[in-house]
Hints:
2 copies of one chain form a homodimer. Chain A is built from 3 helices and 22 strands. Chain A has helices at residues 274-277, 317-327, 332-335, and strands at 29-30, 45-56, 59-68, 73-80, 87-88, 95-96, 108-116, 119-127, 131-138, 144-146, 155-160, 169-175, 186-191, 196-204, 215-218, 223-225, 228-239, 242-252, 260-263, 285-292, 298-305, 309-316. In chain A, β9 (131-138) and β10 form a beta hairpin. The longest helix of chain A has 11 residues, at 317-327. The interface between A and B is large, with 39 and 39 residues.
Amino acid sequence: MSEIKIIGSDIPNLPWQEPEGEAADLPLWRYQDNPIIGRNPIPNVARIFNSSVLPYEDGFIGVFRGDKTNGVPSIYLGRSKDAFHWNFNREPILFTDEKGNPFMPRYAYDPRLVKIEDTYYIMWCQDFYGASIGLAKTKNFKTFTRLENPFLPFNRNAVLFPRKINGNYLMLSRPSDSGHTPFGDIFVSESPDLVFWGRHRHVMSRGNEWWESLKIGGGAAPIETSEGWLLFYHGVSGTCNGYVYSIGAAILDRDNPSVVKYRCPTHLLTPEEWYEERGFVPNVTFPCAALADATTGRIAVYYGSADSYVSLAFARAEELIHYIIQNSVVTQDDTEIGLR
Amino acid sequence: MSEIKIIGSDIPNLPWQEPEGEAADLPLWRYQDNPIIGRNPIPNVARIFNSSVLPYEDGFIGVFRGDKTNGVPSIYLGRSKDAFHWNFNREPILFTDEKGNPFMPRYAYDPRLVKIEDTYYIMWCQDFYGASIGLAKTKNFKTFTRLENPFLPFNRNAVLFPRKINGNYLMLSRPSDSGHTPFGDIFVSESPDLVFWGRHRHVMSRGNEWWESLKIGGGAAPIETSEGWLLFYHGVSGTCNGYVYSIGAAILDRDNPSVVKYRCPTHLLTPEEWYEERGFVPNVTFPCAALADATTGRIAVYYGSADSYVSLAFARAEELIHYIIQNSVVTQDDTEIGLR
Lengths: 340, 340
């Protein structure tokens, strides 16, 4: 195997902590001062979790799922100098339509933030007569313009690739039902214009291993590497006492991301710490962002913990990708082009 | 109300039977010799039902759901001189990809047939790593070329409008789950090219009335009239002994079909006859085609009965549409543009 490289920008101020003790043997290790965002982070918001961040200007910016004290989730903007400590706007992001008129989702959760060329895109789950994907763009984090809802209900866990592939935008998503969805595979769809979507392909199936046997869903925006697109995703196990959400990873073909080249059969991180096992929804680790520094190969994963906190974990691209490749198990569903 | 007109072609040889007795008071009445297609219509096919027909050359042609004796459904081509009596090909329609290579769905059911300009389109439900919509085109009923699957799973009951609206193709569909789907509204989606789809809008909700309180789904291709698009659809009631499928009707705005102008709160036809109450799935009347003769205003509805037979019912456009308008009940979900 040739040297593994991240294909992307440098993030010299990437948040980072070397592993200590037993963590030194893990491909993905926790930040020791997790969670980085605790309960009641701003007035009227009980919990911030399942959130996504990017470098911006001389620091970082992010879109955060904030569950208000009435239980309804909205998306809040946050800023940080060091990507560990965050300040949040007290009001949810104001989305407008293309004419500039307010156009707020009735609820909005699990946002992802992706930069393509000079534009930032936010995608989230919202009510579209049923749970489905909302999409908006901004260039300045002051005005946020909603675009067409890319898909029919029911869908969750959408995330754009950070660049066009073969001339089109690509979006991962996880078709679902209207409830707590006891099934779910990851698909990818193409769009020439972010209005019309098609050429849908199946990417990967639930069910390879028990930890992800109930459903899976795209997590962080894929990271481009010399081996393919590194995707952190969540896998769910159904137990007699509810769902358990773990973090897994796979590597998708660079030109045809519906083809899974490698898939790690073991979870990389599963609820073990108090902030993952205890909370509004116990036993959830849910990745929504992964920052990567091309020069050092350092990766920082932001994940929601127990639907109550934001936490951080770290990896080195080369070691992690070696780990995935060496342990990889893929099925025909994973490796085929995904069209029936 | 001005005179109601069908906007479309003449079908002088439309199948027709005047109502007799009590049927004279009904807006939609049954053909007295139903079902027109009985059990075991061709070798190895146990039941033909939920099928769709159009005029073709000097007679009629159709795509028929045939459940084989192994239980798996496929689509069969049928031809008829009078639209009552049908002859079927013994093998399912051979679908190919754009290069002409065989590309068969693993299963295919509930096909609809729609002509737009000089091309015939077939859409059906099939396996796409979950139930979703398949789409194919033909000009000669000899070669059938599959197009991109328009939507992600899970979806059923897709039907194209018979002409472009505002320059785009429009397709109704009913997002669902992976099973027997105990919910479901009708949506409409646009496409400039039948490859990429978007501008999804909610059309109408289940739940107005008990007979359609569980789910609804588009049925026949909409018929253009001076009052709007006349849509025959199915509505489902959940009982302690299973689902009951009835036939309803609504009228959609001609330029913005996501807006329901009128909706009949009562079913037009519900399982009452032996061929609707008895069969592989009892208590199903399921419309998949409606032929209309512009000059006379005569309408013939083809509907599947009990997942076992094909049956016919008739209406006069003017009387039916008056009935719908006079009884109409619409909710905000129905009349709004359908974007959230």
